[in-house]
Each structure stands twice: as C-alpha cells, then as structure tokens.
Amino acid sequence: MLLPKKVKHRKWHKLRRRNKGIATRTNAVAFGSYGLTATTHAWISSRQIEAARRVITRYIRRSGKMWIRIFPDRPVTKKGSEVPMGGGKGAPDHYVVTVKPGTVLFELEGIPESIAKEAFTLAGHKLPVKIRFVKKN
C-alpha cells in the first residue's frame, strides 16, 4: 500500500470547500497512451488504489507499463471504538488522496486499446469515483 514516509503535520483539517472545482493538475495523459480519468469528486484511500492496481496488472498479465498518477498523502484520523465524546481528535488511521473531476488516476502503455479499456473498467469497480477512459492527444 502507498503511504508517505514522513509527514510535516500528523493531522490535517477536513477542509470546508470539499467537492468543488475541477482538476487543474494531473489532468492530461502524460506518460502512457491510455488513461483512467475520474469524473466525480472523492477521497481515494491507499487500499483502493492498491486494489485497482492489482486488478490492472492481473488483467494485462504484466505486459506493457503502468503508471499510478495519484499518491495518498492526506491523513484521515479515527477515534477508537466506544470512546466517549470529547478527548480531542483521534489518531491517524489511513491515508487518502483528494480527487477532482478530470484527474488522471492510472496510465497504460504498450498494450492494445481494447485490453486497456477492459482493464480500466475492471479497476473502476474498485474505486469510489465514476471513471472515463481517455487516450493521449
């Protein structure tokens, strides 16, 4: 699973302005020929990224090359079970990445378009966002 080696701040604010705007960075296919783009907002956890990665690598049978264009660097905290109200913020539980519409999540190179499209469709079932298949311009 992906997670940062070191973070500047252990706990982050949740942000007021969630689910607004579209992606201005990582919104174009840069490395491969085909890309998997998000069409909705979401937080994608490191476990979900790993599940999608495994589906893609198994479907393409380790041929071609794959790039993961997102990295979970945002800590999400959680309090223990049956902890009473108060007592401050919980401990960091897992890491997520904030995804906006237009963000390229994965890229593939060196395989036929039909196989890439099917691999991305299967990976999309593991992700909490609606997805779209895109080609490099």
Automatic annotation (TrEMBL):
GO CC terms in record: ribonucleoprotein complex; ribosome
Presence of keyword Ribonucleoprotein: yes
UniProt keywords, alphabetically: Ribonucleoprotein, Ribosomal protein, RNA-binding, rRNA-binding, tRNA-binding
GO BP: translation
Keyword RNA-binding (UniProt): yes
Self-association state and partner proteins as the record states: Part of the 50S ribosomal subunit.
Family: Belongs to the universal ribosomal protein uL16 family.
Name used for this protein in its record: Large ribosomal subunit protein uL16
Organism per entry: Candidatus Magasanikbacteria bacterium CG10_big_fil_rev_8_21_14_0_10_47_10
Upper taxonomic lineage: Bacteria, Candidatus Magasanikiibacteriota
